[in-house]
């Protein structure tokens, strides 16, 4: 059976949650007032992002400079390379913005996989957010990871084993459809509470080691 790996970005590929921290910084902490409703599900990710974007006024240069303070998680570049060599498809699936995902991956020269995220751009001192990925049923997400995984399965005749790697509430919909889940932080709490089996991990060296042990990735020669 073939394996496809879907991986969250904020707090997973990066050490910290870039979207939240960026909005927190440029809104002077005002976005915190949205978090309880977002975490409880009363405020959708889509509305949360739109409201956060309205709170900030910064130029593209100011934002890019700020973004350079964020780091990619240990072992991610090597992990992406392993996937490429093993011909295992890797998809970054994010309910955040391409604006910072593209910037950080390009900065660290990491590429070779598909990225499915929301769209953000700066016009003057204003941030514009758009949602190119439509959800059919999910009222909660901007870009629903569960729906993206189901679309992948529907597009392929062969059966795939779906591995999902994540760290937070934006990953909840993926846990219902993925076969194997790597979780930490809020996502781990959610899995425990909901009785969902998961593997704990810290960085991508852990994930790589486990996937090699299961032979879902092949050993480098
Ligand atoms: Mg995350
Ligand atoms: Zn969803």
How does this model look, in words?
With 221 residues, this protein is an alpha/beta fold. It has one domain (2-213): HAD superfamily/HAD-like (Rossmann fold, 3-Layer(aba) Sandwich). 40% of the residues lie in helices and 19% in strands. The protein is built from 10 helices and 7 strands. It has helices at 18-26, 35-40, 45-55, 60-67, 76-86, 98-107, 145-155, 172-175, 185-193, 204-213, and strands at 2-7, 89-97, 114-123, 126-130, 160-166, 180-183, 199-200. It has a 7-stranded mixed β-sheet, sandwiched between helices. The two termini are 22 Å apart. The mean pLDDT is 96. The structure holds magnesium ion (MG) and zinc ion.
Q: What number of domains?
A: 1
Radius of gyration: 17 Å
Helicity range: 40-55%
Spatial separation of the terminal alpha carbons: 22 Å
Unreliable stretches: none
Mean pLDDT: 96
CATH topology: Rossmann fold
Spatial strand arrangement across the major sheet? 4-3-2-1-5-6-7
In DSSP terms (H or I, runs of 4 or more residues), the helix count works out at 10
Overall geometric form: globular
Which structural class do you get from the secondary structure elements? alpha/beta
Query: Largest sheet at a glance?
Result: 7 strands, mixed
Instruction: Find the CATH superfamily.
Output: HAD superfamily/HAD-like
CATH architecture: 3-Layer(aba) Sandwich
CATH class: Alpha Beta
Strand tally is 7
Range of strand content: 15-25%
